[in-house]
Amino acid sequence: MTLPRDRRTQPCPPQGEREDVARLRTENAQLHQAVESHAAVDQAIGVLIALHQCSAADGWEILREVSQHTNTKLRDVAEVVTGWTQGHPLPDAVRVALEDALRRQ
After folding, report:
1. pLDDT of residue 13 exceeding 80
2. Residue ranges of the domains in the chain?
């Protein structure tokens, strides 16, 4: 395989630049995951607002409580809640914690 002419004449980047590129790629992947997590949580808050007529702040607090009481990541709780609206069952621990959190609100 022959590299394009401009690739054959370019030197390898110095070690520091390679480390910077690796660090930036990792940071980019983390930011991408954070955006996806944020979207999932926002959707789950919307579900709680629509079904239980709570405020956005209350929806956030409910999800946070369920996450803490079930020792489940907030993003995972959010995905379970939105999946429930599509016919997927709630795991028993999440269902019980959600019912308890809704009663407290």
Report:
1. no
2. 16-104
